[in-house]
Amino acid sequence: MVEKRSLDALDVALLAALREHPRAGALELSRITGVARATVSARLQRLEDAGVVTGYGPDVDVTAAGFGVQAFVTLEIAQGAIEDVQRDLEAIPGLLEAHATTGSGDVLCRVATSSHEGLQQILVDLNRSSAVVRSTSVVALSQLVPFRTLPLLQSEAAPGAGRSAMRAPAP
Fold this sequence. Notes:
transcription regulation; WH_DNA-bd_sf; Dimeric_a/b-barrel; WH-like_DNA-bd_sf; Lrp/AsnC ligand binding domain-containing protein
């Protein structure tokens, strides 16, 4: 079980500033948030050490990169075969993510490809796994809300803790 790491308003402000200005260094982040550069560096290091910040790579829009056909695939797998299916899924380049789930299915996958023919091939590849008993897919027509974390973090941020020096967010 993952231990909950309590974020405060400064942590969330730093994460929001990084989301808005992903190439900003500690000095620029200190200007944006209104806290000392050393505080920014220490907070970011703490967020990294706690596993809250997992990387600084670019966010990639797979549709803009030429992979506009996306689908969600629910897999029913053989009892006790989660490790086997994980290994098989990792070998499929068009598989963006997969989650073990509760309910009628066991694994929910998000896949992307450049064509419907490519989607058909991914579905064939998924069903080649000896661990997969059945699959069900739905094609995504459009994205209504992109993956996001800031509204959740902001709703649960602990008040205070370093906030006295923080500037109010710009309207």
